[in-house]
Amino acid sequence: MSDRIEKTVELKAPVSRVWRALTDHREFGTWFRVRLEGPFVPGQASRGHITYPGYEHVRWEAVVVKMEPERLFCFTWHPNAIDPGDYSNEPPTLVEFTLQEIPTGTLLRVVESGFERLPPQRRHQAFRSNEGGWGAQMENIARHVEQAP
Amino acid sequence: MSSRRHSQRAALRTRASVFAALGDETRLSVLAKLGNGQPQSISRLTAGTNLSRQAVTKHLRVLANVGVVRSVRRGRESLFELEPQPIEEVRDYLDQVSRQWDDALARLKAHVET
After folding, report:
1. Strand order in the sheet with A34-36
2. Which of A65, B41, B52, B89 has its CA 20 to 30 A from that of B99?
């Protein structure tokens, strides 16, 4: 069984426009339906709340992995976390947006992978040893949010 | 903790272990052989492969631990058969995540094309 989801969509808009819609946190929030607390920053956590009607109680939490301008944007998150609760010790998946210029605009590819990433036993161990790092990242984003105008 | 949340967390754990068990080519090929619904012996599952009996046994144990394979006794022999339900559950889950992406990308399209 495939452990990845792959989608391709042709967008009649220039790559620069699509890049902005993906990586400006306010624009991302408009179409993804999430209110984000601050901009996306590689290596840092992104937090907010889903604004999709009926799911406003659901928290959004992701960690931005890479931002290569107009080419690649990726983050890890907990897919389909539609019930309230702490998902931080569940295995995250990787979401990758890849942009490619085509005559009609932009070809956007989305790949979500890693559903099998960590078996439960190893996962709990990994979480324990990473707790410090995770907590530090939460502080980073909190500091970031306070500094944002 | 509500029982709903509790069972949801249990479902998440199960899902991750099923994905982990399926994320291996050898185990997928063993499952494919069991896909005809007929219980099969270890010898039969080993035949025509480069794998040892021990290796096949080990992989069957991993699959049995997450509930996608179960052993049935026939006379003196242990046979293995496919239990499709956990696989259907993770497939449903992937379909659900997949539909959410379809919806999100449709909204992105509307957002950048107007």
Report:
1. A4-11, A105-113, A93-102, A72-77, A59-68, A45-50, A34-36
2. A65
Give the model's pLDDT for residue B52: 93
Q: Which domains does chain B have, with CATH numbers?
A: 3-83 (1.10.10.10)
Of A2, A80, A84, which has the smallest distance from its Cβ to B97's Cβ? Answer: A80
Asked if B65 has any chain A CB less than 8 Å from its own CB, the reply is no
Residue A116 is nearest to which of B22, B108, B113, comparing CB atoms?
Answer: B22
Q: Whole-angstrom Cα distance, residue A40 to residue A37?
A: 10
pLDDT digits (tens, 9 = 90+) for A109-127: 999 888 765 444 333 333 3
Interface membership of A94 toward B (CB under 8 Å): no
User: What are the chain B neighbours of A30 within 8 Å (beta carbons)?
Assistant: 111
Q: What is the ipTM of this complex?
A: 0.70
- Mean residue pLDDT of chain A comes to 75
Compute the count of residue pairs across chains A and B with CB atoms less than 8 Å apart: 91
Q: Which residues of B touch A12 (CB under 8 A)?
A: 112-113
Interatomic CA distance for residues A46 and A55, integer angstroms: 18
Is B88 at the interface with chain A, CB within 8 A?
Answer: no
Domains annotated for chain A, with CATH where assigned, are 4-147 (3.30.530.20)
Print the SS3 string covering B28-78. Answer: HHHHHHHCCCCCEEHHHHHCCCCCCHHHHHHHHHHHHHCCCEEEEEECCEE
Measured distance CA(B91)–CA(A132) in Å, rounded: 34
3-state secondary structure of A130: helix
Note if the pTM is more than 0.90.
Answer: no
